[in-house]
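Re-run requested by the PI after the first attempt was lost when the workstation crashed. Everything re-entered from the original request form. Ligand of interest: GBH.
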Amino acid sequence: MLKYGVILACILSISLGAKTFPENFLFGAAGASYQIEGGWDEDGKGLSMWDVYAHTPGNIKNGDTGDIACDSYHKYKEDVALLKQLGLNVYRFSISWPRILPNGTPTQINQAGLNYYKNLIKELKAADIEPLVTLYHWDLPLHLLELGGWLNPRLADYFGDYARIVFENFGDDVKYWITLNEPGTTCTQGYEAGIHAPGLNLTGEAVYQCSYVSLLAHAKAYHIYDTEFRAKQGGKVTLNLACGWYYPQTESEEDAEAVRRSLDFNCGIYADPIFKGNWPQSMIDRIRERSKLEGYSFSRLPDFTEQEKSQINGTADYVSLNMYTSRVVWHISDYPIGPIPSLDLDLSVGSGVDPSWPASASSWLFSDPPGVRYLLNYLRDTYNPSEFVITENGWSDVGDLDDQGRIAYWKGYLSNILDAIVDDGINVIGYTAWSLLDNFEWAEGYTQRFGMIQVDFNDPNRTRTLKSSAKWYSGVVSTGQIDP
Ligand code: GBH
Protein backbone atom coordinates (compact mmCIF):
# COMPACT_ATOMS: atom_id res chain seq x y z
CA MET A 1 0.00 0.00 0.00
CA LEU A 2 2.76 2.38 1.04
CA LYS A 3 4.61 1.41 -2.12
CA TYR A 4 1.69 2.44 -4.33
CA GLY A 5 1.36 5.64 -2.36
CA VAL A 6 4.99 6.48 -3.10
CA ILE A 7 4.56 5.67 -6.78
CA LEU A 8 1.43 7.78 -6.91
CA ALA A 9 3.21 10.66 -5.19
CA CYS A 10 6.02 10.43 -7.75
CA ILE A 11 3.62 10.44 -10.69
CA LEU A 12 1.75 13.36 -9.20
CA SER A 13 4.87 15.39 -8.59
CA ILE A 14 6.18 14.70 -12.09
CA SER A 15 2.88 15.68 -13.64
CA LEU A 16 2.79 18.83 -11.53
CA GLY A 17 6.31 19.64 -12.62
CA ALA A 18 7.84 19.49 -9.17
CA LYS A 19 11.07 17.55 -9.27
CA THR A 20 12.04 15.52 -6.24
CA PHE A 21 15.48 14.68 -4.83
CA PRO A 22 16.27 10.94 -4.80
CA GLU A 23 14.84 9.10 -1.82
CA ASN A 24 18.11 8.44 0.02
CA PHE A 25 19.65 11.80 -0.79
CA LEU A 26 22.01 13.01 1.93
CA PHE A 27 20.94 16.48 3.01
CA GLY A 28 23.13 18.21 5.53
CA ALA A 29 25.34 21.08 6.55
CA ALA A 30 29.05 21.62 7.06
CA GLY A 31 31.61 23.22 9.34
CA ALA A 32 35.34 22.98 10.06
CA SER A 33 37.37 22.56 13.24
CA TYR A 34 39.22 25.88 13.47
CA GLN A 35 36.17 27.81 12.34
CA ILE A 36 33.79 26.47 15.01
CA GLU A 37 35.47 24.55 17.84
CA GLY A 38 37.37 27.04 19.95
CA GLY A 39 39.11 25.28 22.85
CA TRP A 40 42.32 26.30 21.12
CA ASP A 41 44.60 25.32 24.03
CA GLU A 42 42.36 23.03 26.03
CA ASP A 43 42.91 19.48 27.25
CA GLY A 44 46.32 19.01 25.64
CA LYS A 45 45.63 20.35 22.16
CA GLY A 46 48.77 21.54 20.33
CA LEU A 47 49.10 24.74 18.36
CA SER A 48 48.13 24.88 14.71
CA MET A 49 49.45 27.33 12.14
CA TRP A 50 46.07 29.07 12.26
CA ASP A 51 46.34 29.65 16.03
CA VAL A 52 49.62 31.41 15.44
CA TYR A 53 48.51 33.24 12.30
CA ALA A 54 45.32 34.54 13.94
CA HIS A 55 47.20 35.60 17.08
CA THR A 56 49.54 37.74 15.00
CA PRO A 57 48.22 41.33 14.95
CA GLY A 58 47.19 42.61 11.54
CA ASN A 59 46.36 39.27 9.96
CA ILE A 60 42.63 39.05 10.71
CA LYS A 61 39.93 41.73 10.51
CA ASN A 62 39.22 43.31 13.90
CA GLY A 63 41.91 41.11 15.45
CA ASP A 64 39.39 38.25 15.57
CA THR A 65 40.61 34.71 16.33
CA GLY A 66 39.23 31.20 16.51
CA ASP A 67 40.16 30.90 20.19
CA ILE A 68 36.52 30.40 21.17
CA ALA A 69 34.70 30.63 17.83
CA CYS A 70 31.29 28.90 18.20
CA ASP A 71 32.62 27.01 21.23
CA SER A 72 31.58 23.76 19.57
CA TYR A 73 34.29 22.03 21.58
CA HIS A 74 31.86 22.38 24.49
CA LYS A 75 28.58 22.76 22.63
CA TYR A 76 28.69 19.90 20.14
CA LYS A 77 25.61 18.28 21.66
CA GLU A 78 23.66 21.43 20.96
CA ASP A 79 24.96 21.45 17.37
CA VAL A 80 23.81 17.87 16.84
CA ALA A 81 20.42 18.67 18.38
CA LEU A 82 20.04 21.53 15.88
CA LEU A 83 20.97 19.28 12.95
CA LYS A 84 18.35 16.86 14.14
CA GLN A 85 15.75 19.55 14.68
CA LEU A 86 16.23 20.64 11.07
CA GLY A 87 15.84 17.04 9.88
CA LEU A 88 19.33 16.83 8.35
CA ASN A 89 20.84 13.39 7.83
CA VAL A 90 24.52 14.19 7.22
CA TYR A 91 27.01 16.47 8.99
CA ARG A 92 30.34 17.43 7.48
CA PHE A 93 32.98 18.39 10.05
CA SER A 94 36.75 18.29 10.21
CA ILE A 95 39.18 16.90 12.72
CA SER A 96 41.81 19.19 14.19
CA TRP A 97 45.12 17.40 13.63
CA PRO A 98 46.88 19.08 16.62
CA ARG A 99 43.94 18.28 18.91
CA ILE A 100 44.71 14.59 18.36
CA LEU A 101 48.45 14.78 17.76
CA PRO A 102 49.70 17.93 19.55
CA ASN A 103 52.91 18.16 17.54
CA GLY A 104 51.52 16.42 14.49
CA THR A 105 53.46 13.19 14.99
CA PRO A 106 52.35 9.91 16.59
CA THR A 107 54.92 10.35 19.38
CA GLN A 108 52.15 11.87 21.52
CA ILE A 109 48.50 10.97 21.17
CA ASN A 110 46.06 13.20 23.01
CA GLN A 111 43.32 10.98 24.40
CA ALA A 112 41.09 13.97 25.24
CA GLY A 113 41.18 14.97 21.58
CA LEU A 114 40.22 11.48 20.45
CA ASN A 115 37.41 11.47 23.00
CA TYR A 116 35.99 14.72 21.68
CA TYR A 117 35.50 13.31 18.17
CA LYS A 118 34.36 9.92 19.52
CA ASN A 119 31.65 11.69 21.50
CA LEU A 120 30.65 13.87 18.56
CA ILE A 121 30.33 10.84 16.28
CA LYS A 122 28.40 8.93 18.94
CA GLU A 123 26.00 11.83 19.31
CA LEU A 124 25.51 12.01 15.53
CA LYS A 125 24.91 8.28 15.22
CA ALA A 126 22.35 8.37 18.01
CA ALA A 127 20.51 11.07 16.02
CA ASP A 128 20.75 9.03 12.79
CA ILE A 129 23.05 11.59 11.21
CA GLU A 130 25.82 10.35 8.92
CA PRO A 131 29.27 11.83 9.68
CA LEU A 132 31.21 13.03 6.62
CA VAL A 133 34.68 13.74 7.90
CA THR A 134 37.51 15.91 6.62
CA LEU A 135 40.95 15.00 7.96
CA TYR A 136 42.46 18.37 7.24
CA HIS A 137 40.72 21.73 6.94
CA TRP A 138 43.80 23.97 7.16
CA ASP A 139 44.84 23.73 10.84
CA LEU A 140 48.32 22.26 10.37
CA PRO A 141 50.23 21.42 13.57
CA LEU A 142 52.77 24.19 14.15
CA HIS A 143 55.63 21.72 14.53
CA LEU A 144 55.01 20.48 10.99
CA LEU A 145 54.96 24.03 9.66
CA GLU A 146 58.37 24.49 11.24
CA LEU A 147 59.52 21.39 9.39
CA GLY A 148 58.56 23.06 6.11
CA GLY A 149 54.78 22.69 6.02
CA TRP A 150 53.25 22.11 2.60
CA LEU A 151 56.60 22.70 0.89
CA ASN A 152 58.18 19.62 2.45
CA PRO A 153 57.43 16.37 0.57
CA ARG A 154 57.89 14.46 3.83
CA LEU A 155 54.63 16.03 5.00
CA ALA A 156 52.99 13.23 3.03
CA ASP A 157 54.46 10.70 5.47
CA TYR A 158 53.38 12.71 8.50
CA PHE A 159 49.89 13.03 7.04
CA GLY A 160 49.81 9.30 6.42
CA ASP A 161 50.63 8.55 10.07
CA TYR A 162 47.91 10.95 11.20
CA ALA A 163 45.38 9.50 8.76
CA ARG A 164 46.07 5.97 10.00
CA ILE A 165 45.32 7.01 13.59
CA VAL A 166 42.11 8.67 12.48
CA PHE A 167 40.94 5.67 10.42
CA GLU A 168 41.84 3.31 13.26
CA ASN A 169 39.84 5.27 15.81
CA PHE A 170 36.82 6.43 13.82
CA GLY A 171 36.68 4.32 10.68
CA ASP A 172 34.04 1.90 11.97
CA ASP A 173 31.55 4.76 12.12
CA VAL A 174 32.60 6.96 9.20
CA LYS A 175 31.84 5.96 5.62
CA TYR A 176 32.70 9.20 3.81
CA TRP A 177 36.17 10.67 4.15
CA ILE A 178 37.83 13.74 2.67
CA THR A 179 41.60 13.90 3.05
CA LEU A 180 42.35 17.60 2.41
CA ASN A 181 39.87 20.44 2.11
CA GLU A 182 40.56 22.74 -0.85
CA PRO A 183 44.32 22.31 -1.15
CA GLY A 184 44.17 25.01 -3.83
CA THR A 185 43.06 27.57 -1.27
CA THR A 186 45.89 26.74 1.14
CA CYS A 187 48.40 26.87 -1.70
CA THR A 188 47.18 30.11 -3.29
CA GLN A 189 46.04 32.04 -0.22
CA GLY A 190 48.69 30.69 2.15
CA TYR A 191 51.75 30.50 -0.09
CA GLU A 192 51.07 32.84 -3.05
CA ALA A 193 48.81 35.67 -1.82
CA GLY A 194 49.94 35.37 1.81
CA ILE A 195 46.50 36.14 3.24
CA HIS A 196 45.93 32.77 4.93
CA ALA A 197 48.30 30.85 7.21
CA PRO A 198 51.23 30.51 6.87
CA GLY A 199 51.14 33.95 5.21
CA LEU A 200 53.89 33.49 2.63
CA ASN A 201 54.21 35.33 -0.70
CA LEU A 202 56.50 32.93 -2.52
CA THR A 203 54.71 33.56 -5.80
CA GLY A 204 54.96 31.27 -8.78
CA GLU A 205 57.00 28.67 -6.95
CA ALA A 206 55.63 27.63 -3.54
CA VAL A 207 52.09 27.43 -4.88
CA TYR A 208 53.05 24.53 -7.17
CA GLN A 209 55.28 22.82 -4.63
CA CYS A 210 52.39 23.03 -2.15
CA SER A 211 50.01 21.52 -4.71
CA TYR A 212 52.48 18.74 -5.40
CA VAL A 213 52.98 17.92 -1.71
CA SER A 214 49.20 18.07 -1.14
CA LEU A 215 48.66 15.47 -3.84
CA LEU A 216 51.39 13.24 -2.40
CA ALA A 217 49.82 13.53 1.05
CA HIS A 218 46.35 12.77 -0.23
CA ALA A 219 47.59 9.74 -2.16
CA LYS A 220 49.49 8.47 0.88
CA ALA A 221 46.36 8.58 3.04
CA TYR A 222 44.25 7.07 0.26
CA HIS A 223 46.51 4.03 -0.08
CA ILE A 224 46.74 3.57 3.68
CA TYR A 225 42.96 3.39 3.74
CA ASP A 226 42.90 1.13 0.73
CA THR A 227 45.38 -1.43 2.02
CA GLU A 228 44.78 -1.32 5.78
CA PHE A 229 41.15 -0.34 6.35
CA ARG A 230 38.89 -0.58 3.32
CA ALA A 231 38.17 -4.30 3.59
CA LYS A 232 36.86 -4.07 7.13
CA GLN A 233 35.51 -0.52 7.14
CA GLY A 234 34.09 -0.25 3.62
CA GLY A 235 34.16 3.55 3.36
CA LYS A 236 35.04 5.97 0.59
CA VAL A 237 37.93 8.41 0.43
CA THR A 238 38.55 11.42 -1.78
CA LEU A 239 40.37 14.73 -2.13
CA ASN A 240 38.13 17.79 -1.94
CA LEU A 241 37.88 19.90 -5.10
CA ALA A 242 36.97 23.59 -5.08
CA CYS A 243 35.86 24.61 -8.55
CA GLY A 244 34.13 27.62 -9.98
CA TRP A 245 32.42 27.96 -13.35
CA TYR A 246 33.80 30.21 -16.11
CA TYR A 247 32.23 31.99 -19.07
CA PRO A 248 34.20 33.48 -21.96
CA GLN A 249 33.95 37.25 -22.30
CA THR A 250 33.72 37.04 -26.10
CA GLU A 251 33.19 34.28 -28.63
CA SER A 252 36.85 34.35 -29.64
CA GLU A 253 38.90 31.17 -29.65
CA GLU A 254 41.34 32.92 -27.30
CA ASP A 255 38.66 33.50 -24.68
CA ALA A 256 37.51 29.90 -25.03
CA GLU A 257 41.12 28.97 -24.24
CA ALA A 258 41.02 31.33 -21.24
CA VAL A 259 38.01 29.38 -19.94
CA ARG A 260 39.83 26.06 -20.36
CA ARG A 261 42.95 27.41 -18.66
CA SER A 262 40.88 28.76 -15.77
CA LEU A 263 39.29 25.34 -15.29
CA ASP A 264 42.71 23.68 -15.51
CA PHE A 265 44.55 26.02 -13.11
CA ASN A 266 41.77 26.09 -10.51
CA CYS A 267 40.09 22.72 -10.73
CA GLY A 268 42.07 20.43 -13.04
CA ILE A 269 45.23 21.09 -11.02
CA TYR A 270 43.86 18.57 -8.49
CA ALA A 271 41.19 16.75 -10.50
CA ASP A 272 43.51 15.74 -13.36
CA PRO A 273 46.15 14.11 -11.14
CA ILE A 274 43.63 12.09 -9.10
CA PHE A 275 41.54 11.02 -12.11
CA LYS A 276 44.11 10.96 -14.92
CA GLY A 277 47.50 10.76 -13.24
CA ASN A 278 49.11 14.06 -14.21
CA TRP A 279 48.75 17.86 -14.17
CA PRO A 280 46.60 19.40 -16.90
CA GLN A 281 48.61 19.69 -20.12
CA SER A 282 48.03 23.47 -20.32
CA MET A 283 49.78 23.87 -16.96
CA ILE A 284 52.67 21.59 -17.85
CA ASP A 285 53.27 23.43 -21.15
CA ARG A 286 52.86 27.02 -20.00
CA ILE A 287 54.79 26.80 -16.75
CA ARG A 288 57.66 24.89 -18.34
CA GLU A 289 57.83 27.43 -21.18
CA ARG A 290 57.75 30.46 -18.89
CA SER A 291 60.23 28.91 -16.43
CA LYS A 292 62.64 28.38 -19.31
CA LEU A 293 62.32 31.98 -20.49
CA GLU A 294 62.91 33.12 -16.89
CA GLY A 295 66.21 31.24 -16.89
CA TYR A 296 65.28 28.17 -14.83
CA SER A 297 66.70 24.84 -15.92
CA PHE A 298 63.53 23.12 -14.63
CA SER A 299 59.82 23.84 -14.51
CA ARG A 300 58.45 25.66 -11.47
CA LEU A 301 55.65 23.08 -11.67
CA PRO A 302 57.23 19.94 -10.19
CA ASP A 303 57.21 16.94 -12.54
CA PHE A 304 55.69 13.77 -11.13
CA THR A 305 57.84 10.66 -11.37
CA GLU A 306 56.17 7.69 -13.05
CA GLN A 307 55.82 6.10 -9.65
CA GLU A 308 54.13 9.20 -8.21
CA LYS A 309 51.76 9.34 -11.17
CA SER A 310 50.56 5.82 -10.57
CA GLN A 311 50.41 6.46 -6.83
CA ILE A 312 48.15 9.51 -7.34
CA ASN A 313 46.05 8.27 -10.25
CA GLY A 314 42.69 6.78 -9.26
CA THR A 315 42.61 8.05 -5.70
CA ALA A 316 39.04 9.39 -5.67
CA ASP A 317 36.20 7.06 -4.67
CA TYR A 318 33.77 9.94 -5.16
CA VAL A 319 33.91 13.65 -5.92
CA SER A 320 33.65 16.05 -2.99
CA LEU A 321 32.88 19.37 -4.63
CA ASN A 322 32.93 22.82 -3.07
CA MET A 323 31.18 25.20 -5.44
CA TYR A 324 30.21 28.80 -4.81
CA THR A 325 30.51 31.12 -7.76
CA SER A 326 31.34 31.89 -11.40
CA ARG A 327 33.60 34.31 -13.26
CA VAL A 328 33.69 35.85 -16.73
CA VAL A 329 37.19 35.47 -18.17
CA TRP A 330 39.28 36.68 -21.09
CA HIS A 331 42.66 35.92 -22.52
CA ILE A 332 45.62 38.18 -21.74
CA SER A 333 48.39 37.78 -24.25
CA ASP A 334 51.05 40.20 -23.18
CA TYR A 335 52.15 39.17 -19.70
CA PRO A 336 55.88 39.74 -19.94
CA ILE A 337 58.58 37.56 -18.52
CA GLY A 338 59.87 39.40 -15.46
CA PRO A 339 61.91 38.95 -12.33
CA ILE A 340 58.99 37.74 -10.20
CA PRO A 341 57.00 34.77 -11.52
CA SER A 342 53.45 34.17 -10.35
CA LEU A 343 50.50 31.91 -10.89
CA ASP A 344 48.53 34.81 -12.38
CA LEU A 345 51.24 35.45 -14.96
CA ASP A 346 51.35 31.74 -15.77
CA LEU A 347 47.57 31.65 -16.14
CA SER A 348 47.32 34.84 -18.25
CA VAL A 349 43.61 35.32 -17.74
CA GLY A 350 41.65 38.42 -16.81
CA SER A 351 38.43 37.94 -14.88
CA GLY A 352 35.30 39.77 -13.79
CA VAL A 353 31.65 39.10 -13.12
CA ASP A 354 28.36 39.55 -14.92
CA PRO A 355 26.69 42.70 -13.54
CA SER A 356 23.39 40.84 -13.22
CA TRP A 357 24.77 38.43 -10.60
CA PRO A 358 23.78 39.34 -7.02
CA ALA A 359 26.81 40.18 -4.83
CA SER A 360 27.35 38.70 -1.37
CA ALA A 361 29.24 40.24 1.54
CA SER A 362 32.41 38.47 0.28
CA SER A 363 34.18 40.22 -2.58
CA TRP A 364 34.69 36.97 -4.51
CA LEU A 365 31.20 35.50 -4.16
CA PHE A 366 28.37 36.17 -6.63
CA SER A 367 25.22 34.21 -7.29
CA ASP A 368 25.09 32.44 -10.66
CA PRO A 369 22.94 29.34 -10.08
CA PRO A 370 23.22 27.80 -13.58
CA GLY A 371 27.00 27.70 -13.12
CA VAL A 372 26.74 24.72 -10.78
CA ARG A 373 24.85 22.68 -13.38
CA TYR A 374 27.37 23.53 -16.12
CA LEU A 375 30.17 22.58 -13.76
CA LEU A 376 28.61 19.24 -12.79
CA ASN A 377 28.20 18.39 -16.48
CA TYR A 378 31.78 19.42 -17.22
CA LEU A 379 33.15 17.30 -14.36
CA ARG A 380 31.06 14.29 -15.34
CA ASP A 381 32.11 14.55 -18.99
CA THR A 382 35.78 15.15 -18.16
CA TYR A 383 36.39 12.76 -15.26
CA ASN A 384 33.38 10.43 -15.18
CA PRO A 385 33.31 9.86 -11.39
CA SER A 386 30.81 7.36 -9.98
CA GLU A 387 29.24 9.86 -7.58
CA PHE A 388 29.29 13.44 -6.36
CA VAL A 389 28.69 14.99 -2.98
CA ILE A 390 28.45 18.78 -2.95
CA THR A 391 30.33 19.40 0.26
CA GLU A 392 30.18 23.21 0.31
CA ASN A 393 27.87 25.76 -1.25
CA GLY A 394 26.72 28.90 0.49
CA TRP A 395 26.24 32.64 0.73
CA SER A 396 27.65 35.36 2.97
CA ASP A 397 25.90 38.38 4.43
CA VAL A 398 26.49 40.43 7.56
CA GLY A 399 24.26 38.39 9.82
CA ASP A 400 20.56 39.12 9.23
CA LEU A 401 18.17 36.66 10.88
CA ASP A 402 15.74 37.08 8.00
CA ASP A 403 18.34 36.06 5.42
CA GLN A 404 16.35 36.19 2.20
CA GLY A 405 19.53 36.56 0.12
CA ARG A 406 20.77 33.19 1.37
CA ILE A 407 17.42 31.55 0.65
CA ALA A 408 17.44 32.94 -2.92
CA TYR A 409 20.98 31.68 -3.43
CA TRP A 410 20.34 28.17 -2.11
CA LYS A 411 17.04 27.97 -3.96
CA GLY A 412 18.77 28.77 -7.24
CA TYR A 413 21.72 26.43 -6.72
CA LEU A 414 19.65 23.54 -5.35
CA SER A 415 17.22 23.82 -8.29
CA ASN A 416 20.11 23.55 -10.71
CA ILE A 417 21.58 20.61 -8.81
CA LEU A 418 18.19 18.93 -8.96
CA ASP A 419 18.01 19.56 -12.72
CA ALA A 420 21.50 18.06 -13.06
CA ILE A 421 20.27 14.95 -11.23
CA VAL A 422 16.90 14.54 -12.93
CA ASP A 423 17.46 15.94 -16.43
CA ASP A 424 21.19 15.31 -16.94
CA GLY A 425 21.37 12.02 -15.04
CA ILE A 426 24.31 13.10 -12.88
CA ASN A 427 24.76 11.02 -9.76
CA VAL A 428 24.79 13.64 -7.01
CA ILE A 429 24.09 11.73 -3.79
CA GLY A 430 24.44 14.45 -1.18
CA TYR A 431 24.70 18.12 -0.33
CA THR A 432 26.16 19.71 2.80
CA ALA A 433 25.38 23.42 2.83
CA TRP A 434 28.06 25.81 4.00
CA SER A 435 27.45 26.37 6.76
CA LEU A 436 25.47 25.12 9.73
CA LEU A 437 26.66 27.94 12.00
CA ASP A 438 27.98 31.45 11.57
CA ASN A 439 31.69 30.97 12.20
CA PHE A 440 35.25 32.25 11.93
CA GLU A 441 35.58 33.23 8.27
CA TRP A 442 39.41 33.08 8.12
CA ALA A 443 41.03 36.45 7.27
CA GLU A 444 37.57 38.06 7.42
CA GLY A 445 37.09 37.07 11.05
CA TYR A 446 33.44 37.31 12.10
CA THR A 447 32.57 40.07 9.61
CA GLN A 448 31.10 37.71 7.01
CA ARG A 449 28.42 35.22 7.99
CA PHE A 450 27.64 32.02 6.11
CA GLY A 451 25.48 30.23 8.70
CA MET A 452 21.88 29.09 8.48
CA ILE A 453 22.08 29.46 12.25
CA GLN A 454 23.15 32.71 13.86
CA VAL A 455 25.75 32.59 16.62
CA ASP A 456 26.00 35.50 19.06
CA PHE A 457 29.76 35.99 19.36
CA ASN A 458 29.32 38.68 22.02
CA ASP A 459 27.53 36.27 24.32
CA PRO A 460 29.76 33.94 26.35
CA ASN A 461 27.08 31.29 25.76
CA ARG A 462 27.45 31.62 22.00
CA THR A 463 23.66 31.45 21.73
CA ARG A 464 22.43 29.84 18.51
CA THR A 465 19.30 31.13 16.73
CA LEU A 466 17.72 29.69 13.57
CA LYS A 467 17.64 32.08 10.62
CA SER A 468 14.87 32.09 8.00
CA SER A 469 17.11 30.05 5.70
CA ALA A 470 17.37 27.21 8.23
CA LYS A 471 13.59 26.91 8.35
CA TRP A 472 13.38 27.11 4.57
CA TYR A 473 16.11 24.49 4.10
CA SER A 474 14.44 22.20 6.62
CA GLY A 475 11.33 22.30 4.43
CA VAL A 476 13.33 21.28 1.36
CA VAL A 477 14.84 18.41 3.31
CA SER A 478 11.54 17.10 4.60
CA THR A 479 9.72 17.24 1.23
CA GLY A 480 12.66 16.58 -1.10
CA GLN A 481 11.35 19.43 -3.21
CA ILE A 482 12.57 22.98 -3.64
CA ASP A 483 9.30 24.81 -3.40
CA PRO A 484 6.90 22.92 -1.22
C1 GBH B 1 35.71 27.64 1.54
O1 GBH B 1 36.72 28.30 0.85
C2 GBH B 1 36.31 27.04 2.77
O2 GBH B 1 36.46 25.65 2.64
C3 GBH B 1 35.56 27.38 4.02
O3 GBH B 1 36.34 27.09 5.12
C4 GBH B 1 35.12 28.83 3.99
O4 GBH B 1 34.57 29.26 5.18
C5 GBH B 1 34.11 28.96 2.87
O5 GBH B 1 34.62 28.47 1.67
C6 GBH B 1 33.62 30.38 2.66
O6 GBH B 1 34.64 31.23 2.28
O7 GBH B 1 39.65 36.74 -3.53
O8 GBH B 1 39.22 36.31 -5.87
O9 GBH B 1 41.31 35.57 -4.87
C7 GBH B 1 36.23 29.23 -0.08
C8 GBH B 1 37.00 29.23 -1.33
C9 GBH B 1 38.75 30.20 -2.47
C10 GBH B 1 37.03 31.59 -1.61
C11 GBH B 1 39.61 31.40 -2.66
C12 GBH B 1 37.88 32.79 -1.79
C13 GBH B 1 39.60 33.73 -3.09
C14 GBH B 1 39.12 34.32 -4.34
N1 GBH B 1 37.81 30.41 -1.41
N2 GBH B 1 38.78 32.56 -2.88
S1 GBH B 1 39.88 35.86 -4.68
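Saved to the shared folder this time. Residues 45 and 453 are 27 Å apart (CA to CA).
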